[in-house]
User: Fold this.
Amino acid sequence: MSNPDESPPSLEPSLLSLLNEVRDILTIESGTIKDVFPFPEQVLGTFLQRVFQQSLQQRLEMVLDKTVTFSPLAFLRTLQSSRAAVISLAEDLKGHGLTGHPGQVSSATTTVIDQNVEELFVPYLQDRGYMERERESLEQLYGGLLLKFSIFHSQRKRNQNLGVLDRLKKSRERVIERVIESDLGKTQTDALSRIIGLDRKSGKDSNLSDVIVTDVDGKLNVEFSKRMLKWLAEAVGRSIELSSAADTPKDVSALLMILMEHLRSMYVEVALDT
Assistant:
């Protein structure tokens, strides 16, 4: 989940199992509700609320809280796959008809389903919190990828007193500090180690500030640019799916500016200056 060079994994198994169970139970029990109760729509509505607001919400919170301990990217990927799976469940329930089976689901039940799906993800998508996580994720990934490059040129400046790098000193130091102080930097996950190019033989407790760099690390690498573009594309695709249509243009612009800051200011311009 934390490796940006790998495709996002499928939905978390326990959550997937619960969604399948909910789908089966609701399609079966809705028939019983229709046969037993004089006002089946009201009973079904209460049943749906309890399923979404208790069972699904508790499991979703548990899964997402766990992914937060891995990385921002792991959280975002899980959030996207979870929401897609819950929406798929909602569409299956509508298609079944529930108390209207084998006909169409009623408008009242449709409203209840849609409201519960929306409320399930409001805590994660409201108040621009989701986009802040996207920004944090990209900045950590880009910072990790360019960490050795930044360290190399910072050391070169100290050794040779290269004044042309002064205007970029703060931005590079910010990249290094951001990665080292981040949760990824503190835990030194396998995914981040691969991004940075660290040798984990020294153990998981090694400090990122002790990274050894060579002349190769100070040169531009076209593959780095390709990877950064690929990571941006995933983030943009996710934002189109999770952000509102009104916010999409400014969200994509904000993500693009993160790419420009790192690829241009902290990478290409540093190489050109030296």
User: Anything to note?
Assistant: The CA atoms of residues 4 and 231 lie 6 Å apart.
